[in-house]
Design goal:
Helix content is 40%, strand content 15%. With 213 residues, it is an alpha+beta fold. It has a five-stranded mixed beta sheet. It comes from Solirubrobacter pauli.
Length: 213
């Protein structure tokens, strides 16, 4: 996922082209993920690192293919991704994002799009948001990019799907409160879990009634 360091957007474009070409040549399926997946659909421009989603079993081959293309490998302490560097541009190869596994189903949900003149699968917007929301915690709690994506692409996102898949995260629930306040999504209707709620009102018995019988 994104770091605080930024690269010129032209560098990200170049690295995406080089990475996609190398993975395609090696016949390795992948998804363009992260903020670039929203940018490809008209969302805000990003200057953070490049996220590519790959199945865990394809990571070693992907690292080798990108190494053959002149990129250098870095093994970070995080267990859910590996990193390669194309010059000064960081490319994250993500194999275990939070919220959804990278498998054939995730890749098939991606939309085949022309990005920078190359056809590639781009991660579904709902999956982008789910993985970003589920990655939030009290030590990494930044909503700026999420809000920018939501406001730019609100009509293209299945919000019910995103909400239902992230409801266990307090940070995701807070995000939806913000979206409701901003008018991006309608306020959620309170539910009773599918069960009718009955309230029994107790009133004091009158003294007369208390003395009867």
């Amino acid at each position: 996922m994104a770091t605080d360091e930024q690269s010129p957007f032209s560098d990200l474009e170049s690295s995406l082209k080089r990475s996609a070409a190398a993975l395609r040549e090696a016949d390795i399926p992948f998804l363009l993920g992260g903020s670039l997946a929203s940018w490809a659909r008209g969302g805000p421009e990003t200057r953070h690192d490049l996220d590519l989603m790959l199945k865990p079993e394809d990571i070693e081959r992907a690292v080798a293919a990108l190494g053959d293309a002149g990129m250098r490998f870095e093994d970070p302490p995080e267990e859910w991704l590996v990193k390669v560097w194309d010059g000064d541009t960081l490319v994250d190869l993500i194999h275990h994002p939070k919220g959804t596994p990278v498998d054939d189903a995730l890749i098939e949900r991606g939309e085949v799009m022309s990005v920078l003149g190359m056809e590639m699968r781009v991660m579904a917007l709902e999956d982008v948001l789910v993985t970003k929301l589920m990655a939030l915690d009290e030590h990494a709690l930044r909503y700026e990019s999420l809000l920018a994506i939501a406001r730019a692409l609100r009509e293209r996102i299945d919000w019910d799907d995103v909400r239902s898949r992230t409801t266990q995260s307090v940070w995701a629930r807070a995000f939806f409160v913000m979206l409701e306040g901003l008018g991006v999504v309608p306020e959620a209707s309170p539910t009773t879990g599918g069960h009718e709620t009955r309230v029994r009102v107790l009133t004091p018995r009158s003294s007369a009634a208390a003395n009867v019988g």
